[in-house]
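Before relying on records like the one below, remember that each one covers exactly one chain. Contacts with other chains, cofactors or solvent are not represented anywhere in the record.
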Amino acid sequence: MIKKSFTLIFIFFYFCGFSQKIINKGLESDILETTRNLKIYLPQGYEKDSAKNYPLAVVFDAEYLFDAYVGNSVLFAAKDKAPKQIVVGISMKESRKKDTYFNIDNGRLTSENIDFYQFVRDEVIFYMESTYRTSPFISLIGEGTSANLISHFLNEPQPFINSYICINPTFSDFVGQEFQSYNLGKFLKEDNTFYLYINNSTSFSAKKQTKIGELQNGLKSLELKNFNVVNDTINTSSSVSAISEAIPRALTKVFQIYSAISKEEFEKNVKDLSPVDAIAYLENKYVEIDFLFGSNLGIRERDIYAIEKIVIEKENGDHLRDFGKMILKLFPSSPLGNYYIGRYYETGKMYKKALKNYKIGYGKMDPADPNSDKFYENILRLGGM
C-alpha cells in the first residue's frame, strides 16, 4: 500500500508540472456530424527541438484515463523507461454507450460503434499526425467497452497501430471467435513491432474472469515473433485500482525495448552471444528505438558496458575495433568508440594508431568529466613509445 501511494504521489507532482501543456481542441467530425473535444498533451521540450518526433498515444475515455496515462508517461520518460509521448484524449462522457457498447446478441459493432471507430482511425489520428511531429509508433488505450473496441483495430488488413492496451476489458461472449477472424498471422508480414496488453483482475465477476482467462489462454499459443501478447492478472478488490496498476504495467512491457538493457534482458538475450552477435544485438536495439520512437539516443553508456565484457573476453578481443566502429556509427560524439578502437590497436602493438584514437576520444571529452584523467593516462602511456 505504501509503495502504491508513493507512486501515485509521484505522478501527482509530475501532473502539476505538465498541466500547463494541455491543449483543448474541438475537432469537427464529418463522420460523426458533430464536434468532439480532444485533450492534447505535448511533452516538455516539444517546442525547442523542431527535428524530434514522438510516439502518439490515443486515450479513450479522456475524462478519467487521460490524466492517469499522461502522468505515467511523464514519469516513465523521466526515469528513461520510455520515450516522451504525445498524448491525445477523446472525451466520451456523454457518448460512451453510443460509441463503444456493442451488440450483446452477436458481439458485432453497431453502426454507431463503426462511426466512432472510423472517427478515431480517419480523423483523430489523421489530425494528430498532420498537425504534430509524431513518430510511426501509435498506441491505443481504453477501458471496459472502449478496450473491446480497441481490439477490433486488430482486424485492419494493413496494421498501423503498434500497441493495443486493453484495460479491464468488457468483451462480448463471442470474443474468441472475433479474435480468430482477425488473422493475426498477418502481423508477421510487417517490418514492425506490435504489442497487445490485456489484463484480468480478481475484482471482476467470476463470469468476466473466466471469459478473459479463456481468451488469454488462447493467445498464449500464438508464436509471432513481432507480435507480443502481454497477458496480465491484477490481484485487487477494486476495478479502479486495477486501472491504476494496469497503465504502468502496460507501459513497462510496451516500451521494454526502449529501456536500457536490464539484468533479465542480458541473461535471456545477450550473455551467450558471440562478440559479433552481441555487437549486432546492441546496434539493432538502438536502430529500432530510433525507427519506432523517433528517439535518437546515441547509445547509453551502461548498455555499452553491458556488452563490453563479451567483446573483450571472447575471441581474444578481436572484435574491439568492430565494437568501436558500431558505437561511432550510432553515437559519433562518444569517446568510447575511439577508446575501443584504440584498445584494439594497442593490443595488436600498433601503438601509433592506438595513440591517434585515444587522442581523438580525449578531444571529445569535457575536462570536467571525472573519467577524462583516466582517458588521458592512455595517451601518456603510449606517448613515449
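The chain has 15 helices and eight strands.
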